[in-house]
């Protein structure tokens, strides 16, 4: 009887709380500070967006119940009534106006959300739950853009800094959980918001533990310290699959792993000759050199050996089938001989030296991918060193344009191609909000013009065709060099289930006890 009672008590406790192991660091809890996956995923527990997305990144109502174009330049948004902030105050149109105005003003953002709000010229509250947004030009992707931006409380955040969100002072949301504590680099502690308009979630308490070390994350799951983890390590996949006490949830991701190159500056800080002497001319400005780098990469080997099959080789920023992708683009075929030929044509018959910088705790096998890239480039004549570092350091330095060749990742939060093209490949323009993640400062006027045309094209099919053509221009010019798309894999205790998401977000409330 004692054993039964203990088991029942344990089951009751488990039913009330869940602890999940995260693979990426949360750099801040200010939802407007840094457009990066771990931050966005964590913020969704407390804050919400006007337009939400399902597991396949299809738009659905969020804090806005409906939206419609009134004419080519005006959109009407109808907000949910009866929604309360965690402090008990009412959610209204004023909170939305404040939030969208705040986005481009957040200081020191490593990757701003401004690209998603810059098209908005004016916002007018018709009443407490009706908004009209006016854009500078026709912008049919406005609902997609707004699916990426969290709404914060005007009352709580009117004069708040990012540190005020981190401390919890300004972290007042409308979402399924309330913030209890954010311990930077360690964990996020959450308490269920029983007044959430979306209904009661399964877990009274949720803890998101930051476990960027793969073996430590797996060990925590096997020992029972956590009940689930994200980004199941490829090296442990067979073990996890065969463990009768665990289950996996798996889906193809739109997370692109790619190389960004310093293609703008005349002199690049980590480019040298073979003896290590700085070059006075930046070879990365030459499209032939960028193409040589792409051809020197054996993507199939990276997928099979480094990623152990848990990835798909990439030839453009989004996988086939997403709006705006091109059917004409395929991954470059591995061809070292042609890579060497192009280097010679560009004036580098003996190659040159370079350092690839990478995070070592952000993407699946990120440092190992950088090492593989370095070996492949070195075989083609580009003597390549690797410098990997924690993501908190890496992104700050990359945003300051300190690097020449960078390993990065990008997931299109809006689920369509412009979400990748504007921030990654658009010519940097703070006023327009373009290029805010363009850390190589790539610029191509023909590409920019095509993208501009696409963004004001109301007809869906015509817009997607223009986006595909813009993508072809940038890929032919090697504005970025796509490597592969990650697979998203969650591992959890057998008595849990999870609906896997293409955007790779990990939401505590979507883990469900099996049979409930």
* CATH fold naming of the largest domain: Dipeptide-binding Protein, domain 3
As a whole number of angstroms, the C-alpha radius of gyration is 23 Å
Which structural class do you get from the secondary structure elements?
alpha+beta
Main pleated sheet: 12 strands, mixed
Strand content is 15-25%
Query: How many beta-strand elements?
Result: 22
The CATH class of the largest domain, by name, is: Alpha Beta
Share of helix among residues? Answer: 25-40%
CATH architecture of the largest domain: Roll
The backbone outline, from C-alpha atoms, is globular
Mean pLDDT: 95
Termini gap? 26 Å
Task: Set down the secondary structure blueprint.
Blueprint: H1 2-16, E1 17-22, H2 37-43, E2 48-49, E3 51-53, E4 59-61, E5 64-69, E6 74-79, H3 93-102, E7 120-127, E8 130-135, H4 142-146, E9 150-151, H5 154-157, H6 162-167, E10 177-183, E11 187-192, E12 205-210, H7 214-223, E13 228-229, H8 237-242, E14 246-261, E15 271-272, H9 287-295, H10 299-306, E16 311-313, H11 336-345, E17 352-359, H12 366-379, E18 382-389, H13 391-399, E19 405-411, H14 418-425, H15 445-455, H16 460-476, E20 480-493, E21 496-498, E22 511-513
Parallel strand pairs: 1-12, 1-13, 17-18, 17-19
Antiparallel strand pairs: 2-9, 3-4, 5-6, 6-8, 7-8, 10-11, 11-12, 13-20, 14-19, 14-20, 15-17, 16-20, 21-22
Helix pairs in contact: 9-11, 15-16
């Amino acid at each position: 009887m004692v054993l039964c009672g203990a088991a029942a008590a344990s089951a009751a406790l488990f039913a009330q709380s869940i602890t999940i192991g995260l693979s990426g660091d949360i750099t801040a809890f200010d939802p407007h500070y840094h457009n990066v996956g771990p931050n966005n995923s964590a913020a969704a527990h407390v804050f919400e967006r006007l337009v939400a997305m399902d597991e396949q990144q299809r738009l659905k109502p969020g804090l806005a119940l409906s939206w419609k174009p009134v004419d080519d330049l005006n959109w009407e948004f109808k907000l949910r009534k009866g929604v309360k902030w965690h402090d008990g105050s009412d959610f209204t149109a004023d909170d939305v106006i404040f939030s969208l105005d705040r986005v481009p003003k957040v200081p020191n953002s490593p990757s701003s959300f401004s690209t998603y709000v810059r098209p908005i010229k004016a916002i007018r509250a018709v009443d407490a739950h009706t908004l009209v947004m006016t854009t500078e030009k026709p912008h049919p992707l406005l609902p997609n853009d707004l699916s990426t931006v969290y709404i914060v409380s005007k009352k709580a955040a009117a004069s708040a800094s990012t540190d005020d969100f981190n401390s919890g002072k300004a972290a007042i949301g409308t979402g399924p959980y309330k913030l209890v504590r954010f311990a930077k680099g360690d964990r996020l502690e959450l308490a269920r918001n029983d007044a959430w308009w979306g209904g009661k979630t399964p877990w009274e308490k949720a803890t998101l533990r930051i476990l960027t070390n793969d073996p430590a994350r797996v060990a925590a799951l096997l020992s029972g310290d956590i009940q689930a983890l994200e980004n199941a390590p490829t090296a442990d996949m067979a073990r996890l699959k065969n463990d009768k006490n665990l289950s996996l949830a798996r889906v193809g991701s739109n997370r692109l792993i790619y190389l960004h190159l310093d293609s703008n500056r005349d002199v690049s800080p980590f480019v040298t000759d073979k003896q290590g002497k700085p070059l006075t001319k930046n070879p990365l400005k030459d499209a032939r050199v960028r193409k040589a780098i792409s051809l020197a990469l054996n993507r199939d080997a990276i997928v099979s050996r480094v990623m152990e099959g848990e990835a798909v080789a990439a030839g453009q920023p989004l996988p086939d089938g997403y709006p705006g992708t091109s059917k004409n683009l395929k991954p470059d075929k591995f061809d070292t001989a042609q890579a060497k030929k192009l280097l010679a044509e560009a004036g580098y018959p003996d190659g040159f030296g370079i350092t690839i910088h990478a995070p070592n705790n952000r993407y699946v096998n990120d440092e190992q991918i950088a090492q593989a890239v370095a070996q492949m480039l070195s075989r083609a004549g580009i003597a390549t060193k690797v410098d990997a570092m924690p993501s908190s350091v890496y992104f700050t330095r990359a945003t300051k344009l300190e690097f020449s060749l960078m390993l990065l990742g990008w997931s299109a939060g809006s689920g369509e191609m412009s979400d990748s093209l504007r921030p990654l490949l658009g010519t940097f323009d703070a006023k327009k909000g373009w290029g805010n993640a363009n850390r190589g400062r790539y610029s191509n006027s023909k590409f920019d013009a095509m993208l501009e045309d696409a963004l004001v094209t109301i007809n869906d099919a015509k817009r997607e065709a223009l986006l595909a053509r813009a993508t072809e221009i940038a890929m032919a010019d090697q504005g970025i060099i796509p490597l592969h798309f990650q697979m998203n894999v969650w591992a959890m205790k057998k008595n849990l289930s999870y609906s896997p998401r293409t955007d790779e977000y990990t939401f505590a409330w979507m883990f469900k006890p099996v049979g409930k």
